[in-house]
């Protein structure tokens, strides 16, 4: 009965019944889930309360111990209050059962809300829920819940004991109480652990109970729904199954009888629709059979607007018709191409080619008229090659490119097509001008981008698209045929010419044959002449006999000549002997100069060391005049050393021992170097300093850069020296207008450097003399200007050495022009013939010793300048700076750009101080302590790099952010020295805006961000401990991928990187960082424990700001480098970290208590060096020769380093070093040789003997101390 009832029900009602029953079951499940969800919320709140309780307890204990260590830094009452709060929370939960029984519902909820307000998120509803669920646990007397409350109650009791002990310790310090406190803390931690475990067990039990109830409810609901659904499904499936069977028969291609309708529901309606579908498919099959037979004209009428099948079949029919048409066109094109290709095969002349091509188009397209033009490359015009359908006399035989449509088609290399032309109305300017046509087609013949001809076709009917396509596609093939035919004609012409030349050659051979026959006749005639000569010879014999008598007379004369020759040979031997004597004299001269160098350097060694020591005035026991006197002694010694070096340079050149090292020298860089070195010297004398480079010159030349620099230095120094007003011009120019004395030079292979001045000039009669050694124009110059007269002599010889020549033009009181003419590319020298002399220590303005003394003298003068004498570069804000103002120092010597920066900075709220001098900048930093600095590199006097170095070496200024703006290229060196950025001039507004944003970011950022990339957690902790502080926020990652992500998302001020990472090497990370936005890349400090190869070290310096190898003082260096790049104020660091940095920057600390063995036979040297070294804390042991040195080493095994002289009596330095190295215990003992010998072989001998380093006398103390630092550190 139920089945019959269901059969007539609509499907919607059947499904609605199932849906309602299902929703009721889901509602029941939801009620159960909500109840258990509330239970889990309570458990989560209890767990959260346990965490909050633990936090209060830990805060209290931590605060108590902080109070105990530093009573003034923490409030003990606050710590005890935190523990009491934790105890109260534990007590309430521990007694929750008694509180629930002894209080009404509202009071119980109030207690929970008051004590556990943080655990219930300060929500009374949560407190209400907790009270209800707690009552459930209490009523069911759940043992797990009781176990948790008992653990909490015991914890509260222990907590009260802890409070009691802390209060006692607040008043008195008692070790017994401290021990009791530690035990109570251990006990309470165990009790709270048990409490946490009990809470977890309650949660697990609740979860298991919920799962069981849910499974039971779901199973019960599923059984009921299944029974009901099966009945409904049966009422639907029976009629559907019958229809499926019919559909399967249809799918197999069998059309059956219609299905009878037995139900009134949707299934019955579906059967009716099925019967209609069967009728429609039968009709479509019949139409499809018509299409398959090729009848594309049938018309399928859709049954409705939504009849997609009929519509699709109609579209398919049309598409098949279109494809058939396309295939027909394709076949037509292919046939046309093949037919034309067959026609053009073979050796056709151009006329035949034209005729066959036009005939093909006339028949195949078809076309009624046509012309064929070919391009004449010699005459640059189109010539008529062939035509059809027209009178040749009525068309043009020659057409220029661009003339009419034909010429236009040739120029534009594009097909032209015109149609619907009416005779008498449209005039066609083409080769078919007088012919009536309705359509015109002109196509270019093109191959490889070159147009070789034009084909023009006309017809009374329009050319179809496929016809135009055919013409366009076969055009290239016709062009190739035309070029092939033309080439064939040219080859035939060449072959004919070759045959003609062959015939001429045969004719010439015939002529040669005739000539040979004539020569044979001449030979016969010569033989006859020979006979006549023999007869004449007999006559001559008689004459010879007469001559013999005369010969005897001549022999007497010969003897006389022989005697004279002997005298000449004797004179020649005397000359050779003189030459040998001169050679020996030259050798003695060289040996004398070398010995003189050694003998002069030895006393100079002591003189320079002691005078410098006095000038430094370390004990501050000398007056200013005494310090000045010592400085003058030192400077005089340096002048004497320069003189010795110049004499030796000249000696090397004369003896041929000085060679050259060719390299690529960029002229722009050379000119810039000259400007940097001499411009400020000229400007100090009020001279205009100019450099010019001829644009015709190559960008670089090949020569010896060092020797060329020496030549320019000598000439420019002389020009400045002898010029009091006017200008100095250094002109790099060509030699087109110059006459050469050197036969190997010409205007094509040479260039010239002209040094022009407006100085005192040189008289003509003195111009040759100035190039001789020790010669000047006159004695008064030597007295007035000083100097030895060697400069120009060395310059002339160096110029000859470089393959060039020197010329001079000068007039007294008008100035001089010294012209150095050099080859653009000097001949390469043999690499084995390197220079045999080392470079002597030069004494110039960059000498560190002179610089240091000069700086001190300048400082003394600067300190004496009064405030009224302070120079103002621009009117700025230095007298209007108040506390709290942002102060910016601008160091820029370009007045216009300095004004621009001043204006831009003021607009951004900065108070500005402006100067154009590096020295003045240091004084202004000391006086005003600016918040930031914008610094140019190229400055008169002290350059920007030196200013930056001094600022970053000073602990009081190293934190000031310095941004570089310079015309030089971006230089990593500036970033490595601590600059925050580098912008190259000219600077656009965007770059300037970014610069100010970066400066303001550094000024306003109190806490700096540091990124540590290290896979070892212990090492990360150590680095954080070394660097960390309240002013640094440290972020740590252990792999390269995370580091890249953080760098893109954050702006870090510095990054510490280890090279060994799990996912990539440090090198790969640095390379990937370079692909990021350069503004986001922080300074990188590589902190690694591995030894780096030379190549690795070079690559790292491209990316990293600093490289630190873990080892001695690596912690101090890491702290110092990060402090530099984080711009931390050293005085604000903790005392221990300040001391670490201070000790690191104290370069003298490495010398303390180091044992030095000083080996020298000259007591003056021993005294001078020992005094300098002992003042720096070193312990000196002396030995007068190598033998004594070995004895001293045995007596003093604590020796840290040996300073070894070479030339000594009994045992020289080489032998002593070899003996030392024979013993294993002294294999690694550092040995530095000190010698007055300046030859390269001396250095090589020292290193081969076993020395670690080499230093020439007189000893430069700065270089000696630098070497000692290196080897004593190692």
SSE layout and pairing:
Layout (H helix, E strand, L loop, with lengths): L1 H7 L2 H59 L6 H19 L1 H7 L2 H11 L8 H16 L3 H29 L3 H77 L14 H27 L15 H36 L6 H15 L4 E8 L4 E8 L9 E2 L4 H9 L3 E3 L20 E9 L2 E10 L5 H152 L7 H32 L7 E4 H18 L3 E6 L6 E4 L1 H17 L5 E7 L16 E8 L21 H7 L5 H11 L3 E7 L3 E9 L24 H16 L22 E6 L3 H13 L2 E6 L2 H11 L3 E4 L8 H10 L8 E5 L5 H5 L4 E4 L4 H16 L3 E6 L3 H11 L4 E6 L2 H10 L4 E4 L8 H9 L9 E5 L5 H10 L2 E4 L4 H12 L9 H11 L9 E5 L3 H13 L3 E5 L2 H10 L5 E5 L7 H10 L8 E5 L4 H10 L3 E4 L4 H13 L1
Parallel strand pairs: 8-10, 14-15, 14-16, 16-17, 17-18, 19-20, 19-21, 21-22, 22-23, 24-25, 24-26, 26-27, 27-28
Antiparallel strand pairs: 1-2, 1-6, 2-3, 4-5, 5-6, 7-9, 10-11, 11-13, 12-13
Helix pairs in contact: 1-8, 2-3, 2-6, 2-8, 3-7, 5-6, 7-8, 8-9, 10-11, 10-13, 11-13, 13-14, 13-31, 14-18, 14-19, 15-16, 16-18, 21-22, 26-27, 29-30, 32-33
What fold name goes in the CATH topology slot of the largest domain? Beta-Lactamase
Radius of gyration: 54 Å
Structural class: alpha/beta
Number of helical segments?
35
Lateral arrangement of strands in the main beta sheet? 3-2-1-6-5-4
pLDDT averaged residue by residue: 78
Task: State the helicity in percent bands.
Answer: 55-70%
Summarize the structure.
This protein is of the alpha/beta class and 1274 residues long.
Describe the structure.
- It contains 35 helices and 28 strands.
- Helices cover 58% and strands 12% of the residues.
- Helix 10 crosses helix 13 and helix 29 (1114-1125) crosses helix 30 (1135-1145).
- Residues 424-429, 779-784 and 828-871 have low confidence and may be disordered.
- Strands 3-2-1-6-5-4 form a six-stranded antiparallel sheet. Strands 8-10-11-13-12 form a five-stranded mixed sheet, covered by helices on one side. Strands 15-14-16-17-18 form a five-stranded parallel sheet, sandwiched between helices.
- With 1274 residues, it is α/β, with parallel strands linked by helices.
- It has seven domains: 42-206, no CATH class; 265-295; 328-496, Beta-Lactamase (2-Layer Sandwich); 659-823, Histidine kinase-like ATPase, C-terminal domain (Heat Shock Protein 90); 891-1003, Rossmann fold (3-Layer(aba) Sandwich), CATH 3.40.50; 1005-1146, Response regulator (Rossmann fold), CATH 3.40.50; 1155-1272, 3-Layer(aba) Sandwich (Rossmann fold).
């Amino acid at each position: 009965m139920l089945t019959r009832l269901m059969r007539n029900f609509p499907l919607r009602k059947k499904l609605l019944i199932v849906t309602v029953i299902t929703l009721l079951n889901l509602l029941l499940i939801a009620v159960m889930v909500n109840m258990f969800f509330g239970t889990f919320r309570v458990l989560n709140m209890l767990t959260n309360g346990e965490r909050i309780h633990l936090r209060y307890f830990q805060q209290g204990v931590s605060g108590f111990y902080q109070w105990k260590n530093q009573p003034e830094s923490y409030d003990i009452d606050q710590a005890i209050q935190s523990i009491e709060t934790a105890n109260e929370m534990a007590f309430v939960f521990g007694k929750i059962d008694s509180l629930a029984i002894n209080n009404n519902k509202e009071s119980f909820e109030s207690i929970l809300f008051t004590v556990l307000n943080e655990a219930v998120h300060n929500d009374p509803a949560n407190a209400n829920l907790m009270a209800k669920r707690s009552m459930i646990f209490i009523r069911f007397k759940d043992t797990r819940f009781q176990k948790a409350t008992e653990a909490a109650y015991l914890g509260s009791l222990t907590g009260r004991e802890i409070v009691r002990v802390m209060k006692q310790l607040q008043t008195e310090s008692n070790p017994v109480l401290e021990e009791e406190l530690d035990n109570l803390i251990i006990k309470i931690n165990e009790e709270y652990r048990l409490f946490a475990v009990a809470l977890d067990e309650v949660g697990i039990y609740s979860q298991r109970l919920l799962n069981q109830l849910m499974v039971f409810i779901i199973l019960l609901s599923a059984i009921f729904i299944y029974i009901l659904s099966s009945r409904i499904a049966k009422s639907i499936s029976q009629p559907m199954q019958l229809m499926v069977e019919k559909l399967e028969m249809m799918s197999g291609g069998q059309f059956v009888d219609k299905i009878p309708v037995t139900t009134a529901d949707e299934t019955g309606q579906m059967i009716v629709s099925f019967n209609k579908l069967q009728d429609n498919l039968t009709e479509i099959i019949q139409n499809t059979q018509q299409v398959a037979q090729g009848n594309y004209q049938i018309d399928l009428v859709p049954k409705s607007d939504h009849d997609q099948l009929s519509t699709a079949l109609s579209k398919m029919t049309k598409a098949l018709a279109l494809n058939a048409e396309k295939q027909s066109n394709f076949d037509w094109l292919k046939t046309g191409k093949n037919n034309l290709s067959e026609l053009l095969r073979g050796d056709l002349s151009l006329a035949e080619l034209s005729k066959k091509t036009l005939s093909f188009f006339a028949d195949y397209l078809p076309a009624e008229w046509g012309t064929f033009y070919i391009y004449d490359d010699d005459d640059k015009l189109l010539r008529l090659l062939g035509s059809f359908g027209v009178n040749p006399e009525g068309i043009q035989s020659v057409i220029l490119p661009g003339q009419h449509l034909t010429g236009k088609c040739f120029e534009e290399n594009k097909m032209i097509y015109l149609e619907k032309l009416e005779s008498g109305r449209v005039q066609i300017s083409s080769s078919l001008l007088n012919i009536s046509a309705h359509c015109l087609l002109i196509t270019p013949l093109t191959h490889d981008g070159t147009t070789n001809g034009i084909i023009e076709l006309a017809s009374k009917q329009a050319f179809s698209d496929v016809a135009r396509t055919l013409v366009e596609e076969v055009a290239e093939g016709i062009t190739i045929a035309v070029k092939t035919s033309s080439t064939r004609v040219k080859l035939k012409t060449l072959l004919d010419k070759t045959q003609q030349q062959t015939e001429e050659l045969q004719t010439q051979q015939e002529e040669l044959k005739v000539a040979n026959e004539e020569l044979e006749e001449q030979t016969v005639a010569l033989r006859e002449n020979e006979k006549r000569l023999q007869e004449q010879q007999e006559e001559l014999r008689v004459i010879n006999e007469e001559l013999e008598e005369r010969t005897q007379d001549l022999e007497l004369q010969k003897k006389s000549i022989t005697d004279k020759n002997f005298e000449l040979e004797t004179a020649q031997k005397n000359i050779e002997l003189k030459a040998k004597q001169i050679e020996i004299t030259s050798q003695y001269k060289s040996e004398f100069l070398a010995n003189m160098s050694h003998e002069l350097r030895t006393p100079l060694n002591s003189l320079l060391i002691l005078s410098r020591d006095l000038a430094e005035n370390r004990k501050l026991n000398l007056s200013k005049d005494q310090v000045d006197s010592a400085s003058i002694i030192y400077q005089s010694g340096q002048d004497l050393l320069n003189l010795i070096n110049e004499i030796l340079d000249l000696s090397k050149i004369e003896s041929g021992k000085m060679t050259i090292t060719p390299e690529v020298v960029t002229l722009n860089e050379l000119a810039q170097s000259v400007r940097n070195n001499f411009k400020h010297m000229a400007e100090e004398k009020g001279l205009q300093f100019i450099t010019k480079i001829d644009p015709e010159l190559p960008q670089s030349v090949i020569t010896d850069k060092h020797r060329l620099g020496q030549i320019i230095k000598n000439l420019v120094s002389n020009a400045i020296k002898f010029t009091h007003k006017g200008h100095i011009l250094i002109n790099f120019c060509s030699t087109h207008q110059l006459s050469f004395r050197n036969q190997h030079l010409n205007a094509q292979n040479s260039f010239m450097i002209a040094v022009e001045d407006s100085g005192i000039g040189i008289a003509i009669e003195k111009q040759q003399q100035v190039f001789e050694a020790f010669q000047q124009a006159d004695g008064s110059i030597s007295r007035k200007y000083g100097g030895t007269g060697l400069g120009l002599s060395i310059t002339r010889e160096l110029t000859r050495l470089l393959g060039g020549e020197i010329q001079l033009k000068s007039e007294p009181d008008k100035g001089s022009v010294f012209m150095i003419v050099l080859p653009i590319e000097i001949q390469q020298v043999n690499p084995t013939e390197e220079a045999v002399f080392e470079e002597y220590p030069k004494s110039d303005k960059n000498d560190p010793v002179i610089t240091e003394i000069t700086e001190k003298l300048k400082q003394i003068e600067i300190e004496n300048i009064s405030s009224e004498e302070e120079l103002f570069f621009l009117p700025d804000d230095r007298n209007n700076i108040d506390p709290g103002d942002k102060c910016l120092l601008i160091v820029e010597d370009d007045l216009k750009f300095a004004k621009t920066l001043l204006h831009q900075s003021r607009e951004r709220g900065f108070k500005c101080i402006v100067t154009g001098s590096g020295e003045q900048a240091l004084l202004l930093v000391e006086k005003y302590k600016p918040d930031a600095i914008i610094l140019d590199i190229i400055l008169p006097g002290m350059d920007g790099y030196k200013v930056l170095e001094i600022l970053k070496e000073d602990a009081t200024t190293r934190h000031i952010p310095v941004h570089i703006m310079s015309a030089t290229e971006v230089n990593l060196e500036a970033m490595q020295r601590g600059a925050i950025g580098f912008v190259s001039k000219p600077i656009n507004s965007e770059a300037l805006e970014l610069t100010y944003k970066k400066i303001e970011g550094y000024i306003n950022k109190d806490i700096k961000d540091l990124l540590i990339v290290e896979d070892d957690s212990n090492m990360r902790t150590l680095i954080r401990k070394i660097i960390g502080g309240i002013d640094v926020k440290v972020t740590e990652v252990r792999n390269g991928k995370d580091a890249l992500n953080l760098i893109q998302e954050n702006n870090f001020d510095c990054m510490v990187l280890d090279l060994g990472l799990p996912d990539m090497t440090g090198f790969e990370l640095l390379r990937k960082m370079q692909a990021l936005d350069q503004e986001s890349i922080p300074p990188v400090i590589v902190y690694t424990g591995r030894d780096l190869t030379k190549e690795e070290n070079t690559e790292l310096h491209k990316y990293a700001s600093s490289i630190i190898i873990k080892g001695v003082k690596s912690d101090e260096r890491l702290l110092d480098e990060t402090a530099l790049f984080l711009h931390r104020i050293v005085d604000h660091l903790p005392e221990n970290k300040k001391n670490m940095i201070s000790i690191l920057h104290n370069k003298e600390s490495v010398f303390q208590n180091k044992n030095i063995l000083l080996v020298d036979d000259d007591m003056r040297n021993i005294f001078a060096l020992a005094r300098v070294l002992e003042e720096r804390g070193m312990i000196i042991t002396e030995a007068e020769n190598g033998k004594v040195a070995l004895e001293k080493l045995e007596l003093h095994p604590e020796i840290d380093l040996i300073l070894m002289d070479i030339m000594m009596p009994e045992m020289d330095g080489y032998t002593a070093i070899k003996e030392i190295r024979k013993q294993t215990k002294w294999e690694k003992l550092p040995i530095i040789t000190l010698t007055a010998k300046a030859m390269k072989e001396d250095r090589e001998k020292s290193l081969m003997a076993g020395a670690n380093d080499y230093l020439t006398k007189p000893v430069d103390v700065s270089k000696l101390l630098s070497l000692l630092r290196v080897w004593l550190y190692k």
